[in-house]
Design brief:
About 90% of the residues lie in helices and about 0% in strands. Helix 1 runs antiparallel to helix 2. The relative contact order is 0.14. The chain is built from 3 helices and no strands. The protein has one domain.
Length: about 90
């Protein structure tokens, strides 16, 4: 396998990972900021108050985005499988 091909496969894997994880992590970040502000306002410093809502909201986002995430992962996997002969042939 040529180095350019390996770099392209790695780059595509990282891009796919970022596209799939981005919305979930962004929502988790936003909920964390909101909960941090609420904790600062109310002066309640309990760890579970900030973690539990983040987990719940992130699970809801995963459930809502699951068809979209599966289509991205399926497209990526299909492209990888279709390129196996090219990888084996060396270019």
């Amino acid at each position: 396998m040529e180095s350019d091909l390996a770099i392209d496969i790695g780059r595509q894997a990282m891009n796919t990972t970022l596209v799939m994880a981005g919305p979930i992590l962004l929502i988790g970040l936003l909920v964390g900021i909101v909960m941090g502000v609420l904790q600062a306002i109310t002066q309640i410093q309990d760890y579970t108050i900030s973690v539990v809502p983040k987990i719940i909201v992130m699970l809801i986002v995963v459930a809502l985005c699951l068809p979209w995430l599966m289509s991205i992962l399926t497209d990526y996997s299909r492209e990888l499988i279709e390129n196996i002969p090219r990888v084996i042939a060396g270019g």
